[in-house]
């Protein structure tokens, strides 16, 4: 009645795309969360029951589960649902919890959160990540949904950045500039380079520079591609790979989104000018 496909994995997390086809006539059965998890409900409706309570979940909601917690899902009011679930390792939960909820034990205190602006934005990013691979970093999204689940609206209510935070964000940006054309840079590796936790870097980098590290990396690659289109006669495919994009369609989408023009049109417009 359900299928699960791993769409991303990294240090401390696995992202699974779940598709369930159960309906009102299917009897629910008991299951248990093997890891701490946060699931973004992308489509469909279902009822989630756990020891701490129960809730009807709809698109835009988030389902939280603690490792070892028993639960069951049922579909009294319709057939099927689709979720993007993040399985979170204890060290990731502890790390994020220490920053967003330091006075409480880092556990998922709710079994659901109804859709509202911030959770809806996370769900929208989850849909985009599945629809257009490469446009959204699932690693960054894993940390954001963990923070949201642990502290809800307090997740991003951090004080203004310090001089040290600003320096580390700048150091991380320089590292991304240097490595933009060579390979993808995992958030965990970038955080280790500047000697902070991944979530701390994600929050600080976004606050200082206005974008996430993944968005900064894509922008750096687009800038390099623009230079190559203007200064050389290379084929667009060659430009894409040289600039660091591993997929031509991802390159075209990213370039058009940043410049408003497809790569070929950008080259022609520049030469005319």
Strand order of the largest sheet: 1-2-9-4-7-10
CATH class of the largest domain: Mainly Beta
Helix content: 40-55%
Going by CATH, what is the homologous superfamily of the largest domain? Answer: Jelly Rolls
Radius of gyration in whole Å, from Cα? 21 Å
CATH architecture classification of the largest domain: Sandwich
Number of domains as seen in the coordinates: 2
Molecular shape: globular
H and E order: EEEEEEEEEHEHHHHHHHHH
Helix and strand content put the structural class at: alpha+beta
List the helices and strands and how they pair.
Elements: E1 2-10, E2 13-20, E3 31-32, E4 36-44, E5 46-50, E6 53-57, E7 62-65, E8 70-74, E9 81-88, H1 90-100, E10 112-113, H2 117-131, H3 138-151, H4 163-179, H5 187-194, H6 198-209, H7 213-231, H8 236-243, H9 248-259, H10 263-272
Antiparallel strand pairs: 1-2, 2-9, 3-8, 4-7, 4-9, 5-6, 5-8, 7-10
Helix pairs in contact: 1-3, 2-3, 4-5, 4-6, 4-7, 5-6, 7-8, 7-9
Give a structural overview.
The chain has a six-stranded antiparallel beta sheet with strand order 1-2-9-4-7-10. Strands 3-8-5-6 form a four-stranded antiparallel beta sheet, with no helix packed on it. The protein has ten helices and ten strands. Mean pLDDT is 86; it is low at 153-157. It folds into two domains: 2-153, Jelly Rolls (Sandwich); 159-273, Homeodomain-like (Arc Repressor Mutant, subunit A, Orthogonal Bundle). The radius of gyration is 21 Å and the shape is globular. Helix 1 packs across helix 3 and helix 5 packs across helix 6. The chain has helices at 90-100, 117-131, 138-151, 163-179, 187-194, 198-209, 213-231, 236-243, 248-259, 263-272, and strands at 2-10, 13-20, 31-32, 36-44, 46-50, 53-57, 62-65, 70-74, 81-88, 112-113.
């Amino acid at each position: 009645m359900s299928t699960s496909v791993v769409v991303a994995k990294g240090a401390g997390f696995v992202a699974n795309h779940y598709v369930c086809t159960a309906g009102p006539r299917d009897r629910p059965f008991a299951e248990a969360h093997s890891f701490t998890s946060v699931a973004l409900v992308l489509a469909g409706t279902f009822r989630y029951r756990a020891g701490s309570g129960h809730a009807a979940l709809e698109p835009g909601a988030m389902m939280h589960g603690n490792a070892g917690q028993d639960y069951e899902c049922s579909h009294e009011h319709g057939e099927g649902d689709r979720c993007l679930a993040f399985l979170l390792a204890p060290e990731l939960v502890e790390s994020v919890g220490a920053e967003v909820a330091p006075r409480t034990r880092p556990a998922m205190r709710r079994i659901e959160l109804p859709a509202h602006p911030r959770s809806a934005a996370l769900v929208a990013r989850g849909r985009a990540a599945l629809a257009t691979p490469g446009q959204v970093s699932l690693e960054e999204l894993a940390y954001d949904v963990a923070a949201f689940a642990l502290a809800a609206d307090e997740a991003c209510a951090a004080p203004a950045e310090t001089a040290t935070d600003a320096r580390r964000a700048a150091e991380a940006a320089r590292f991304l500039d240097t490595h933009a054309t060579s390979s993808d840079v995992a958030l965990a590796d970038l955080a280790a380079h500047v000697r902070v936790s991944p979530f701390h870097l994600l929050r600080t980098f976004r606050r200082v520079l206005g974008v996430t590290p993944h968005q900064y990396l894509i922008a750096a690659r687009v800038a390099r591609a623009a230079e190559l289109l203007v200064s050389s006669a290379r084929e667009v495919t060659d430009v894409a790979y040289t600039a660091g994009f591993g997929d031509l369609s991802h390159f075209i989408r990213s370039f058009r989104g940043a410049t408003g023009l497809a790569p070929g049109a950008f080259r022609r417009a520049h030469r005319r000018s």
